[in-house]
Fold this protein.
Amino acid sequence: MMNTSVVIPNWNGKDSLQACIDSLLKQSLKSNIIVVENGSTDGSLEFLQNKYPDIQLVINKKNLGFAGGVNSGIRASIERSDDFVALFNNDATADKDWLKNLVDKMNSSPKIGIAAPKILTSDGKHMDSTGDMYSNWGLAYPRGRGEQTSDKYDDSTDIFAASGGASIYRIKMLEQIGLFDEDFFAYYEDVDISFRAQLAGWKIAYVPTSIVYHEIGGTSKTVSGFTTYQTIKNVPWLAIKNVPSRYLFGVMFRLRIAQLLFFFRAISRGNGLAATKGTWVGVIKTPKKLVQRHRIQKNKKVSNEYIWNMMTHDLPANSSALRSVRAKWWKLTRRSHVDSD
């Protein structure tokens, strides 16, 4: 029998914890539940100790972010000699067969390193994620986000990346490629670990029968400028660490255009300080990411073409501002070409 733990990172999520944990206790496949108390100040720890005395707690004295928090829980899972570890957001609830269907998929092939569920909004009316994609613009995005719930994404398939909010990971894979990059803190650390898994030859499966309901941004939206800072810091690291050298220049060129637009949009929305700080920290830690890149690329087990074919060769569907800029550029270059003729 395969042993599985579910890790819930928690930072000031007391109001959401009961619904989250109760949905996990009702799973058709039982597991060990590990809650990582990540330096909360809202009484979460006391609530957990009183309400759920039998649940395993990992207590961090300060907020280590999503990446550092889940790593604490994953290490506890490894110490238990688990075969799989699933991650679960504290602002989500799970269908009763969520975990069973993920574990069944993992058991279907030893090549699967990660399996991702279908994630819906908390009211079930719209999609949150049916797996994450990675564009040749260096941008990661959740497939199907914002679309009305339908059977459009009900085919089991391989995907580029899995959302860390409710996916399952093979411990053997994590021991090979390493845990989450804690410099990311929050946002895109799940795409980074998925990218590393892809490069190391592991498959990432989408399991549409595994259902989760999620309140998007339930935790991060409480901190002003948080998303802007993390996004502008982390997105370039994804490419710097993981994109094969053959494609890195083109991806980074397009990404810098996107980053420039995102930076000025952040200023217009009053998040200029967060964007500046994110840019600065991203640059300062780039040498460290280049060292990590050397190790990742050295251990690559798949061809460049495989990674290129797994990527999306277009802008994300919701990148309306970038699409507008691209359309204007195409119009300008075509006009210049006609004038030169």
User: Anything to note?
Assistant: The mean pLDDT is 94.
